[in-house]
TrEMBL record:
Taxonomy of the source species: Bacteria, Pseudomonadati, Pseudomonadota, Alphaproteobacteria, Sphingomonadales
Protein's recorded name: Gfo/Idh/MocA family protein
Gene3D superfamilies assigned: Dihydrodipicolinate Reductase, domain 2, NAD(P)-binding Rossmann-like Domain
PROSITE patterns (alphabetical): TAT (PS51318)
UniProt xrefs under PANTHER family: BCDNA.GH03377
Pfam families: GFO_IDH_MocA, GFO_IDH_MocA_C3
Organism per entry: Alteraurantiacibacter lauratis
Lineage top rank: taxon: Bacteria
Length: 398
């Protein structure tokens, strides 16, 4: 017959015996544990730990257009050494709405831009304005004592680029150009494979980038106005092909440039800038980089091809924000397509890379001098196209 415990619960003899066995097991475990202890282990290696928020480099974002709002600012959410502390915009309402969303409480308009010199909560400035404004706002930020990462292309002319580099030198501040592809995992993996010799000797590179420009769409409209854009499709997307191709050719040198325009006759969109251009860069190594850019293609194209003596890599898409892929062919194996990582990592990696360079006051992976180099190449492309494809001799180290 069941017996009641002090709480009135009825326990059978079997349950009482089971409880006794459990108590005996617990006692045995306790006795065993007395011979062992949980102890701490040393921190192995040198893991890259994130900075505490208060220790992160502090950034002002200058220009709150679609690229800044859709890509640059969200990229800071994944950053480990960088945080946004200020917005600079001509639209106060938009700046404050974004400030509420991202915890930013410092705001400047363009008229008061130079006041950032007196703000100790700004270490670095990201210039995300139209190209025609890059030089002015970069130089003013450098003169205000801030490090500057400027969107690509660097500016409108070689003379402006030279002035920007000199302003950084005079201010003893770092200047970088936002060539995010250098931080994108799939392009970095392609560079690793080329450098490791997996393609054999590199023989040829081709690069094609384009889309159809819509003058009714505000982010496209300013790109068709030379004063704001600096140039046409070459400046906007052709520069990706140039810069990414040269990323794979460290130590080489551009010795000749030739080009032809490929703008459709009578297309009213291109009254001020070229619609398209085909170009060729002759390298000192004997390699040719053959490229094209266009505002007249549909659908959007972003393609890089690297041909080696033994194998080749095609990236299509190659330089997008979120969908880059690698197709490896040859080398005695079937074609294989893969991704080496999430392309969205490039935005956080880029700003963290610049934060590290600014903190140490050492050159960034994509410094102002690289932007100046690419401006000189694009200037030579235009010079050749203006002269019906005549070869322009240059001597531009990669």
């Amino acid at each position: 017959m069941d017996k009641a415990d002090k709480t009135g619960t009825n326990l059978s003899r079997r349950e009482l015996l089971a409880g006794g066995a459990a108590a005996a097991s617990l006692a045995a475990l306790s006795a065993s544990a007395s011979a062992q202890e949980a102890i701490g282990q040393p921190l192995l290696g040198n893991p890259q730990l994130p900075d505490m928020p208060s220790d992160r480099m502090r950034w002002a974002i200058v220009g709150l257009g679609t690229f800044a709002v859709g890509q640059v600012i969200p990229g800071f959410a994944e950053a480990r050494h960088s945080r946004i502390t200020a917005f600079v915009s001509g639209n106060a309402e938009k700046a404050r709405r974004l400030g509420d969303a991202y915890g930013v409480s410092r705001f400047y308009d363009y008229a008061g831009y130079d006041e950032i010199a007196n703000d100790p909560e700004i270490d670095c400035v990201f210039i995300a304005l139209p190209v025609g404004l890059h030089a002015e706002y970069t130089i003013r930020a450098l003169q205000a004592g801030k490090h500057v990462l400027c969107e690509k292309p660097m500016c409108s002319t070689v003379a402006e680029a030279e002035a920007m580099v000199e302003a950084a030198r005079a201010a003893n501040r770092q200047l970088g150009v936002a060539y995010r592809v250098h931080f994108e995992p799939n392009n970095r993996e392609t560079l690793r494979r080329i450098t490791a010799g997996e393609l054999g000797a590199l023989r040829h590179i081709s690069a094609d980038h384009g889309f159809s420009a819509n003058p009714q769409y505000p982010p496209h409209k300013w790109r068709l106005e030379k004063q704001l854009s600096g140039g046409g499709s070459l400046f906007d997307i052709g520069v990706y092909g140039i810069n990414t191709s040269l990323m794979m050719l460290p130590g080489d040198r551009v010795v000749g440039v030739s080009a032809h325009y490929s703008t459709p006759a009578g297309d009213a969109r291109f009254a001020e800038v070229e619609g398209g251009v085909d170009y060729r860069l002759r390298m000192a190594s004997g390699i040719n980089v053959q490229g094209s850019s266009s505002y007249c293609w549909s659908p959007y194209v972003s393609r890089q091809r690297y041909f080696g003596a033994d194998a080749s890599i095609e990236m299509q898409p190659a330089t997008t924000y979120d969908d880059n892929r690698i197709l490896l062919e040859g080398g005695g194996q079937p074609p294989r397509e893969f991704r080496a990582g999430n392309p969205m990592q490039q935005f956080a990696a880029q700003v963290d890379g610049f934060s590290a360079a600014a903190r140490a006051n050492v050159p960034h992976l994509t410094p102002g001098e690289m932007g100046l180099r690419d401006m000189r190449i694009m200037e030579a492309i235009y010079a050749s196209a203006d002269n019906d494809g005549a070869v322009v001799a240059v001597n531009i180290p990669v």
